[in-house]
Write a structure and sequence with these properties.
By secondary structure, the chain is mainly alpha-helical. The chain is 66% helix and 4% strand. It has helices spanning 17-40, 48-78, 83-97, 100-110, 116-121, 124-128, 130-139, 146-158, 160-173, 189-194, 201-240, 245-252, 257-284, 309-321, 325-336, 373-390, 404-424, 428-463, 470-485, 515-534, 536-548, 554-559, 568-587, and strands spanning 175-180, 183-188, 340-341, 353-357, 362-366. β4 (353-357) and β5 form a beta hairpin. 45% of the residues are buried.
Amino acid sequence: MNMTWNLDSLYPSFESEKVRRDRELLSQHIQDLKMWAENHLKVTDVTAAPVEDFLRLYNDYKSVDVCLLAYAELTLSADSSCEEAMNLADDIEHMSSEIAGVVAGFNRWISTCDHIDELIVSSTYLLKHRFYLKELLLQSRYVLNEEVEVAISRMQSTGSTAWGRLYMESVSSTLADVVVQGETKKVTLAELRSMAYENNAALRKAAYEAEAEACSRIAGVCAACMNGISGEALTVYGMRGYQSSLEKVLVASRMDSETLSAMLAALQESLPAFHTYYQKKAELLGHSTKLPFYDIFAPIGEESVKISYEDAQKTIVSSFGTFSEELASLAQKAFDQQWIDAEPRAGKGGYGLCIDIFPIGESRIMTQFTGNAIDISILAHELGHAYHSSCLGNETMLNTDYPIPIAETASIFCETIVNQALLTSSTKKEALLLLERSISDAGYYLVDFYARYLFELKLYERRALGPLPVQELNELMITCMVEAYGESIDPDTIHPYMWMNKAGYFMAGYEFMNFPYSFGLLFAKGLYAEYLKKGEGFVARYRQFLSATSKHNIADVAKFMDIDVHSIDFWRGALKLIETDIKAFISTT
């Protein structure tokens, strides 16, 4: 079965006539937007017709830009050394920087309108983009003048974007030696991390130590990347008027601080339950004291066979079918039409990825499939993103942006569907192993990501004083891991380069890619509990919920499902479901 994706529906090659035509078309769209700006931005009276014109032009521009950039970025994700992809990405980003001033100008121009509500209701097209326009008004306070916005956009292409690509190339091309079944193999960092889920205890430990050694070889480069990216973020967000990088992320996520505070407070309360689980896991794995970190994701029970990619596909499609035929069909389509690149190989990014390509109604997914049970969850997770985007297929490009915490809800909900379907068809012994894997996954999204959230908070506090050397980054990471995992983990076994194995830290413009996953897990838990109560009637409502996510903030869209994200009791209730699972696991082992 083919484990690599096919990008032909985007472009057959970098030299293709289709790429050439779209680059010319993108250039024309940019010129049209510039001409619009020259004709309208100096006019003080904001009327419906020019606003409509701008939105149509910008939608047209983004429809081409997203295809070209997706082709370049997907190719780079699968092969970080591809010069053609690098060149195309650089060209498209440079071309896009030319309209940064136009977009900033429109934002500032529309903010001068004192009758925006009347303007919007006067036009069917503006009504369709009501939320987009309202969001522009909310964010206008953070927009700088046109010249500065253009300068920032141009500098980022050789600043944070370039640092991010250097990081990706460094980690994807780094190899390490590890002994597998008596044979020494050269494997990638992504493959080493996947060995954390192996049954063989000696292999888990050896892979963990090999990862630490390999990371030490590129730590200096990765530290420079992190310092460059975080330093630029502090400078740019400070210029825009954000109080912190976290504030910028909350605004971009359409999430208020009240929601984050309520969730984190409930999460902190639940940490002792997870600590108890890790202590029990240490006992089951034969450790006399605390759990070594290299065994944090170790499976419990007898040795299991590897899962084939074909069997993973069948499991996912059939599991999705227990929820809805539409979801199952989307997954089958993704496998049949080669939307997925799951083959492990050097030069490929070691992370899960889903890029939605709305103009062609498709997505592309990247994973590293090694045959472990966790690989099914990762595939289900990324397919959840693809299903979410399919629910927005009738929207314009400007109406397809949805907040990351809700994106992670959709993906983790799909993980939950697969896990529950497997539980239903399993034996009592298998069910216990699946229960443990579910708790382990929850610990990853909650405890581990809480540690990474703490790290990022402290990183930006310290980065404001100057660059951090490798040793300080190491110490900061260990301190935060210990704070989250408490007394349940042996701190001496936490390898100091954990800050290097989260791509989110190195993705310019995507700061704090940690708490959205915690939000997604807990929100998905709450939603799945409602599904179990309401059954078939929930399915259509859930789809409507996903369809609404691009045109509402988080608090408002949660109300579609009768959820109050400001209430700590909601988050406590979701965590209580996991705590109940932990008690059940401990009582039966």
